[in-house]
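Margin note from the TA: students keep mixing up input and output lines. Inputs are the sequences; the output is the structure of the whole complex. Example:
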Amino acid sequence: MIEKIKQIEQEAQTEIATVQTLDHLELFRVKYIARKGLVPTLFDSLKTLESSIRPEMGKHLNDLRNKVQKLFDDKKEALEKNLHSEKESIDLTLPGRKRWIGTKHPITQTLDEIKRIFFKMGFEVAEGPEIEDDYHNFEALNFPPDHPARDMQDTFFVSDKILLRTHTSPVQIRVMEKQKPPVRVIMPGRVYRNEAISSRSYCLFHQVEGLYVDTRVTFSELKGTLVAFAKQFYGSNIKFRFRPSFFPFTEPSAEMDITCFLCKGSGCRVCKQTGWLEILGCGMVHPNVLKNVNYDPDKYSGYAFGMGIERIAMLMYGIDDIRILYQNDLRFLKQF
Amino acid sequence: MRISLNWLKQYVEINQTPEELAHSLTMLGLEVESIERLGDKYNNFFVGKVVNVQKHPKADKLTVCQVDVGEKTLQIVCGAPNIAENQIVAVGLEGAIVPKNQHDPEGKPFQLSKVSLRGTESNGMICSEYELDLGEDKDGILILKINAPIGTPLSKYLDLDDIIFEIGVTPNRPDALSHIGIAREVATIQNKTISLPVTKVIEDTAKISSKVSIKIEDPDNCPRYSARLLTDLKIKSSPEWLKQRLKSIDIRSVNNIVDITNYVMMECGHPLHAFDYDKLEQGMIVIKCAEENQPFITLDHKERKLRKDTLMICDSHKPIAIAGVMGGENSEITKDTKTILLESAYFLPRSIRKTSKHFSLVSDASQRFERGADPNGTIWAINRAAQLIQEIAGGKVLNGIIDVYPKIVEGEKVILRLSKLIEIVGITIPKEMVIEILSKLSIKVIDISRRENDDTIIVQTPTFRPDLQLEIDIIEEVARIYGYDNIPVHQASLIKFSENAPIKNQISEMKAHFIGAGMSEIITNSMQTIQTALLSSPHPVQISNPISRDMESLRTSLLPNMLEVIRENIFRGTTLVRLFEFGNIYFNNPYIAGKYLKEYQEVAMLTIGLSGSANRVNWDEKSRFYDIFDIKGEIESFFEKISLDNIKFIPYSTTNALSESDLRIEINSEYIGTIGMIRKDVLKRFGIEQDVVFADIDVDKIIKLADIKKKFMSLSKFPSVIRDIALVVHRTVQMDRIEEVIKQYGSELLRKVELFDRYTGEQIGKDNVSYAFSLEFISSDHTLTQNEVDKVFNNITKKLEQQLKAVIRQ
């Protein structure tokens, strides 16, 4: 018996060395380990032995079984490892399976950034209609009928008294009509101008209007809010200036300029050699506007401001033709 | 408004550089948009002397000249017939930009370079009056005065050392539409005084009152009318200095009389008009409104139909001018005019504005009158003009001015509270400084309260500043002169929020979802043709004054724009498109109340368009094109993302103008949108050669439906049991019907039903379809037993067999 065990062990060791493939290994398994293989068969013959030597032989047999099993396991692991490294030889420079990539329109990106800053300063969003009446778009905003100030905004008319809003300022009126101070809102939206389409102007564009009305709101605070915005948006090292201007619905009115970020103020094509870029219009809400929404101008004061999104987006990204924003060429959109 | 620096210097001393002055004006609210150095136009042009003229060897009409330009003598080939030796001429050298090209129909400028003309070298150009933009003469070269110094830069010879500021004057500042007006502002900030020219008219003994009578029939629209009569005039072209002044600010010279009225208007801002007195019937001037539809020919030779609100200047029989806007042909100054009636009037801004708008007729005069001229400025202006006419055109000025001014217009009396000033501006400006600023601006301080607790100052505004009416206007003036830059930047330490609860930013979140799903956001024009608008609604909003026929209506659907964008992208080589747009569509349906205006509706929409290959091109995957299930899947995922359920997709045979094989999307039986494929004939019309699938969804409705408070539901601690079911049904049985039956009989234990296979083939009969579903069962309070699941499962199979004649496959 003991010779038999030794012989099988010898044979198994010799044979395993010749195994090169998993198929061959399977033959090895069938020959030695499987139910009817050499090792189990030897176990079967154990019961024919005398009971006195049975335990010792059993121990030898167990050893044999463990040894053969280990030969098999080691070989299997080695072969599988080989196989694996064969797989690794695949060309990993092949490209990956990409997913689709979406893009946010540059107008939305610019608007989102503006919103983010004003949200931090406690402003909320309000909206109003694009098809407006003359009252909200002009009259309530202190543009009297037959006033030359109306020429500042070439208007598309739908009927005699209905028009496409020329600015987001009518939303100011709609918000204040519905709500008592404090009012602290921004009003983004689409506006229309009846102007010839060119690289500089399109028949419509987007604005963000801002409005804060409460007791003791001052021009000084207006400056503070807008300077804070400009520094967040354009960088903390910008220089700025406020120069007097005219809007019928604010007084005092101003336009805010910042140093041209292309030429750093030395004068270039974009800033028309002035070194300054106009970024927004603003002012203190005109007392006539407050009266029109039944706010007492002796009790409340407020400021308003407005800026054009396209203009800002064009400056930020260096886009030289406004029309490209509305062409939606994917080669353009994918750049943002 | 163009302002000449040299002209400005006549009224106020200026020590600043042009750039400094421009900055000062800009910071006063008079934005200098550009600075133009007139002399720059003639860089590289010099005065030269023709020393020798020879015939060109190869061309009859050309001559070869030697021209002395000071430092050197150049050979220049010239084609002018009037060239001769010893002439003093204007020579452009290499690099000079000739202002006008005689051989170009539009006269566009061109740059000179060294050229060879028929084999002879030419080093410059001797220019004509036209080429130098100094006049219309193209027939020969311009010959300069014989004593002109040779080699002098042409700009210096022409006295073109002037600088022109282009100022964007806001519509509230009519006073700034003149040189004196700008001089006043300059004086204000530089602590200087302006000096106005002294007007001195030498009057004849004959009295105007014997020749002219004036009657204002409409004093509301014409509060003042002043006139002078000038006789024995010689109409001719203006002297050079006057022509040059006007030219520098882009006003065409006409004749001495018209030029002087224009000059005075640009000097003081008050428009004047001159009538040929001999063309007036009975020397009479009547100011009244026209008769409706009365025809009238204006100076520009156009016939206009007057309205009954058109204010007219008439003689005893006929209208002779549209008041404040434009004169009539019938009383125009001609070269034969001997006697003129000079008008200096004040008209009501609103009336002039209405007329100017109605006739689309804008003149320098109408611009000033509609913004507001100075009613007390008529006399200075008329005397100034009379004086200049006398100097330039000779003649006599009759004695006296007829000045009809029934009700004197005074400046507005305004109460200024210093406390209000502080409240608006945010800082204290000392009372003395306020008073100083007011006086600089010619705002008269009438009274300063000395009472305690009374900080009021009563002021009277000057009549040349019609924009100053209210306390806030005075506050603005004080702040403007004090300097916006001197007002500190203040940030409130406490933010006061609006009373109303903020609205959630759902659209941004939705956009983020689609961008994450690999789509690109587009933004398109909301105006389109009426034909396109009518495709999607019988109630489009129409624009009464569109830019073009392409944009006469507001869009009624986002789809046509989407198709155009897809076409353009395919055309430019991008054939794989995944796009979405959030935007409004607009209707004018008189039967539906809009949110803001009755009869007008604005609906926020989301449109998605997919076209081209449905998967990105990969080296080991086959590509296929988009079909309806791709868009359906996108929408299902989107609804899952925003936690919307109870969604039904209902197929309907379409009558839609754009699409086919549509599915209506309903949530809780409410219609919220459509998905489908664009019809082949529509694709063809749009020039698209690949299928387009789309979704069109009402955003407001889904925002409303998705606006549910999210609430936590506890997760089951017990394992779920998965059972698969395979069945064969007749092909007429729709999938959703099977799902419905499974759900209906799945009891509360059934959590999820998922279709994982669909098969058709000969083996199961050609009219049959096989489906395989995976069913998940779970209980929240115990581990399910086989028995429990079997019971439900068997019931489901039984009902499927009974109700759908399904054959369950084992």
